[in-house]
Amino acid sequence: MNHSQIKEILEGVREGRISLEEAMGVLKDLPFENLGSSHVDHHRQLRQGIPEVIFSQGKSPDEVVEIARAMFNRSGRFLITRADERIYNTLKGRGEFRNLRFYPRSGIITAEGEKEAIGCITIITAGTSDIPVAEEAQVTARFLGSRVETLYDVGVAGIHRLFAYKEEIEKANVLVVVAGMEGALPSVVGGLTDRIIIAVPTSRGYGTSFGGLTALFSMLNSCVPGIAVMNIDNGFGAGCLAHKINRAIEDK
């Protein structure tokens, strides 16, 4: 539940459109709802600006559905990360969630309505293999309300590809740069622009990439000052941070 929804309820009570009992019924599960195996934090968007998101790994499909239902009943939307087709089919089979969409490449499921997008975040990948992590960032930031553009497969092995998109890079409030292998792309991008950069290492690479550690260390040791670095394969975290920065810039 967000600020506008709370405001609408309170104004409804003041104007007599909503009874006090109805308002109490809606607000009774703030700040959280106890489902037994889960405590759903409906209050999180009010506190943090980012609603609770369902991390599905380790949860059964029924547990995911129960949490999703609690969120959907309160806000009409939810976002699920690290999901698979089995979870999506379970949700879809219940027939109670509108605008359900599955992104199999990144393992994200969303249920959301239309909304106005603000600002601009541009997500850049070194290679096509990095797109699943980039898509997680893209869908997350878009779900939260940011306008997102993408620029894929412009890594350092063919750096001239990146130079062709200088104008697109400068239009963004925030750049999310996703790279595996040696993880050099964020430093290259950082040397070309004063845009805010969030670097995301991926686990794509051969043996001595050590599951993304080489890319992570490369990004942490960048010569370019002021680059923020996320955890390995953490597109979700990058999408959240990018949205917060984008929103702060647009709110000025």
Characteristics of this structure?
five-stranded parallel beta sheet, four-stranded mixed beta sheet, globular, 252 residues, Rossmann fold, alpha/beta
Q: Can you walk through the features of this model?
A:
It is a single chain. The protein has two domains: 31-111, no CATH class; 118-250, Rossmann fold (3-Layer(aba) Sandwich), CATH 3.40.50. The chain has a five-stranded parallel beta sheet. A four-stranded mixed beta sheet has the order 3-4-6-5, sandwiched between helices. Strands 1-2 form a two-stranded antiparallel sheet. The mean pLDDT is 88. The chain starts with a helix and ends with a helix. The longest helix is centred in the C-terminal third of the chain and has 16 residues, at 235-250. It is of the alpha/beta class and 252 residues long. The protein is built from eleven helices and eleven strands.
What is this structure's SSE topology?
Elements lengths: L2 H13 L4 H8 L5 E2 L4 E2 L3 H5 L5 E2 L5 H15 L2 E4 L3 H10 L5 E4 L4 E4 L6 E8 L5 H14 L1 E6 L8 H4 L2 H6 L2 E6 L5 H6 L5 E6 L11 H8 L7 E2 L5 H16 L2
Parallel strand pairs: 3-4, 7-8, 7-9, 9-10, 10-11
Antiparallel strand pairs: 1-2, 4-6, 5-6
Helix pairs in contact: 4-5, 6-11
Q: Brief description of this entry?
A:
By secondary structure, this protein is α/β, with parallel strands linked by helices. The protein is built from 11 helices and 11 strands. Helix content is 42%, strand content 18%.
